[in-house]
Amino acid sequence: MKPYLGEEEALAAAEAVRSGWIAQGPRVADFERAFAAEVGATHGVAVSSCTAALHLALAMLGVGPGDEVVVPSLSFIATTNAVRYVGARPVFADVDPATANLTPESVKAALGPATRAVLLVHQGGMPADLDAVRAVCEPSGIPVLEDAACAIGSTYRGHPVGHGSLLAAWSFHPRKILTTGEGGMLTTEDPDWAVRLRRLREHGMSVSAADRHRSAQPILEQYLELGFNYRMTDIQAAVGLVQLDRLAGVIQRRRERAERYRTLLADVPGLSAVADPAYGTSNFQSFWVTLADHFPVDRNELLRRLAEQGVSARRGIMAAHLEPACADLEHGPLPVTEWFTRSSLILPLFHELTDQEQERVVAVIEEAAR
């Protein structure tokens, strides 16, 4: 992945610096409104990272020690870590082999008396079947939070991922399609939640620093509850606003590149490429392929051959339960998760990827397949 950044982003960041207001301020508020409108949400709350967004969402819901949260192991470890930050126990559920997302069946099997939430990941930009998972959880009053870190520009049942969501967390890390360097966002439909989330991101302060500085009269703030330092800067938000203007064209280009990969790889035996599900469209934040057991080389060997030819591919999505940091977490069988993390790799896909570069990638794979 290469971030798609240009002179407009540089000028926007410079203007923020020249304005003298570089901390969380008016550009952050503008970015929150614009981002929420883009994904069909009512409120946006900008924060320092998607991990911070996940942490805030769980903390706001009161999830804590003794509680359980259903999560996929097949996700960047931040998904699991956020649950542990609040003292709760992650309960790993298996995923669908085609979408790499939780299924209603795997979620239902993981629910228990201590379940306080389900953290549904739209993995690699692939939309998860939110309605089906909600149908499993709603009879028990269990909220479904969305880890939409990679999903800006993806759609679900004709709407943007994030449309009408209870709580969705987003990432603006440089690997993401829309980047602010670092940064994240929470979107929600609940105005009271939005107010409290803004308070929690700023040490539980009763009035934001921006509002305090804008006031003509002194304001003596109070600290109403335990909060965090999870603010975004106006410099980041200035870049994010430019990136939002580019988004439609970037998504279109990524989907074109992804479809070309699918065409070029269609006849490679023993290889399957990611594709849109029936209920939505992916932004192809990650374009992954999986190798059948009978493929002539294993995943790691294919990565090595690609690297030898100057191609920077990477292993497929990690499985948190296999990492040393999660060795203390008990879990049941996760056969699809373990197969996927062992058999998949992510191919280069970025806005300026050329036909010739794609053909170079495919040539290495075809040679390995022979």
Automatic annotation (TrEMBL):
Cofactor(s) named in the record: pyridoxal 5'-phosphate
Keyword Transferase found: yes
Active-site residue numbers: 176 (proton acceptor)
Superkingdom of this protein's organism: Bacteria
GO terms for biological process, alphabetical: polysaccharide biosynthetic process
Modified residues (N6-(pyridoxal phosphate)lysine): 176
Keywords: Aminotransferase, Pyridoxal phosphate, Transferase
A Pfam family that the UniProt record links to this protein: DegT_DnrJ_EryC1
InterPro entries referenced in this protein's UniProt entry, alphabetically: DegT/StrS_aminotransferase, PyrdxlP-dep_Trfase, PyrdxlP-dep_Trfase_major, PyrdxlP-dep_Trfase_small
CDD domains: AHBA_syn
GO molecular-function term, one example from the UniProt record: transaminase activity
Gene3D superfamilies according to UniProt: Aspartate Aminotransferase, domain 1 (3.90.1150.10), Type I PLP-dependent aspartate aminotransferase-like (Major domain) (3.40.640.10)
Record-stated family: Belongs to the DegT/DnrJ/EryC1 family.
PANTHER family in UniProt: DTDP-4-AMINO-4,6-DIDEOXYGALACTOSE TRANSAMINASE, TRANSAMINASE
Protein name: DegT/DnrJ/EryC1/StrS family aminotransferase
